[in-house]
Structure formats: structure tokens, C-alpha cells
From TrEMBL:
Keywords: DNA-binding
GO molecular function: DNA binding
Entry annotated with the keyword DNA-binding: yes
Residue ranges of domain Phage integrase SAM-like in the record: 68-144
InterPro entries according to UniProt: Integrase_recombinase_N, SAM-like_dom
Name of a matching Pfam family: Phage_int_SAM_5
Name under which the protein is recorded: Phage integrase SAM-like domain-containing protein
Length: 148
């Protein structure tokens, strides 16, 4: 993230001011801090110690096989499709595909990424997705059923 020099507060390591840009920068910084703290806690619970390199790699997802939402959703849909006509219905499959499509549109527009590790899914993610469906997509009225 690039921060204009006139907005940066060196003492507090944050953007200064109340502008939309400053608030956006500070929200991103807060998200990074929360993610780093969560990774730190996970490493402490798993290994009992943390190094700067381990923490950096865990935060960046380096050397860690991560299950991701869209990958898992697509896997689910592929398995579900095989069962259509036997124990699963075509209409339900269409709904799953639609939700997957909405997530595929949501992630780049809101999280600026193509997929998201399951470990990063939380209430904020769910609320953001709901907001996306309600506001930006205007598809909240039974969005899973809409093929749009």
C-alpha cells in the first residue's frame, strides 16, 4: 500500500486526518495488525514459540498449505454435480453455483484477492459479503436462487 507522505504520522505509525483516504489506510493497517496477531497466537499454540521469520511466512502464507474458500466451494460443487438425479437436485446445484459466482465477484472487489484462506473467514467476512449482496449486487432477495 502506498501512503502519501503528507498523510503519514511517523510517531503513531498510522495515517493522520479524517479524510476517506486516511481512514481507508488506517482500516487496512488495523486489518494487518489483527491478522499478524492472530497468526502469532496460532504459532504460539501450535509450536510454543514464534520467530520473526515464522510469523512473516505465516502471515504471507509461505510454506503453509492453506485451504481456500473458492477452491473448497468448487470442490464441493464438483462432487455435488455428480450426485444430481440420485440424491441431489439440479435446482440446489444451481443455487450453489450462483453463491460461488457471487463470492468470486465479491473477493476481488472487497478484499482485492482472487481467493481467501479458510483461516481468514470470520464474522467480518460474512458481514462484508452480506453487505455486498444487499448493496452492491442488489441481490439479497433470495440471492442464492437468482442466476444473475
Amino acid at each position: 500500500m502506498d501512503v502519501p507522505l503528507h498523510l503519514w504520522d511517523v510517531k503513531n505509525n498510522r495515517s493522520q486526518g479524517k479524510s476517506t483516504e486516511a481512514q481507508k489506510i488506517n482500516r487496512a493497517i488495523n486489518r494487518i495488525r489483527v491478522d499478524v496477531n492472530r497468526r502469532y497466537q496460532e504459532l504460539m499454540q501450535a509450536d510454543g514459540y514464534v520467530t520473526a521469520t515464522k510469523l512473516k511466512n505465516a502471515y504471507l502464507g509461505i510454506g503453509v498449505k492453506q485451504e481456500t474458500l473458492l477452491k473448497l466451494f468448487e470442490q464441493h460443487n464438483a462432487e455435488f454435480e455428480k450426485k444430481i438425479g440420485y440424491s441431489r437436485a439440479q435446482g440446489t446445484f444451481a443455487r450453489y453455483r450462483t453463491v460461488c459466482k457471487h463470492i468470486r465477484e465479491f473477493l476481488p472487489s472487497t478484499y482485492h484477492r482472487e481467493d481467501i484462506p479458510l483461516k481468514e473467514l470470520n464474522l467480518t467476512f460474512i458481514n462484508d459479503f452480506e453487505y455486498f449482496l444487499r448493496g452492491e449486487k442488489g441481490k439479497w432477495r433470495n440471492t442464492a436462487c437468482s442466476g444473475a
